[in-house]
Specification:
By secondary structure, this protein is α/β, with parallel strands linked by helices. It has a single domain, classed as 3-Layer(aba) Sandwich (Rossmann fold), CATH 3.40.50. The chain contains six helices and seven strands. A seven-stranded parallel β-sheet has the order 4-3-2-5-6-1-7, with helices on both faces. Helix 2 links the parallel strand 2 and strand 3. It is globular and about 35 Å long. The two termini are 28 Å apart. Bound molecules: magnesium ion.
């Protein structure tokens, strides 16, 4: 069976993903890519805006967890320690190992889980294969380097085909 590469929703920034939006979709576990989703790769520490967003999710009853392919466990471990949330490193997206491990860790089913990420061939494909709601964001800080400019240009048609910022109905949407 063919697997779709369309995200369910596209957001300009992670800030726009709110507990109310997630509740409306039955989501209580938000698996977050790290690099270019929550912070540019060069940013070593979470900033105040990210800390506030994570706190708002947690107080709203949503558990955030980092699921990263980053090959530097030191970066992910340090970032998450300062952010105060758990992580699954070497997640192997678009394989589902990391997603399944994170869902098992938090006792959440795929229907209670969403993936937040910036890349089509890792985050979106992994979410599709794991059967979780996919929320795509524009790359935080903009695409970095020639290859990422090409990659993000290639992603544009897929993003344009999806609901924007939760304001209109997406494939899995109810709003
Ligand atoms: Mg990323």
């Amino acid at each position: 069976m063919a697997i779709s590469l369309l995200p369910d929703y596209v957001f300009d920034d992670y800030h726009s993903v709110t507990p109310d939006f997630l509740h409306a979709h039955g989501i209580r576990l938000l698996l977050c890519d790290l690099d270019y989703t929550l912070a540019p790769k060069r940013q070593a520490e979470p900033d105040a805006a990210l800390l506030a967003w994570v706190a708002s999710l947690q107080s709203g009853g949503v558990t955030p967890e980092i699921v990263s392919n980053n090959r530097s466990p030191a970066r992910v471990e340090r970032f998450c320690r300062n952010l105060g949330i758990g992580y699954t490193g070497h997640a192997g997206k678009p394989g589902t190992r990391g997603l399944l491990e994170a869902m098992r860790k938090h006792g959440a089913s795929p229907s209670e889980t969403a993936m937040l990420g910036d890349k089509l061939l890792t985050d979106v494909l992994g979410a599709r294969r794991g059967n979780v709601l996919m929320l795509m964001v524009e790359p935080k800080g903009g695409p970095f380097g020639a290859w990422n400019h090409v990659l993000h240009a290639m992603q544009e048609p897929f993003k344009r085909a999806c609901a924007r910022d939760g304001r209109s109905a997406g494939r899995g949407g109810t709003q």
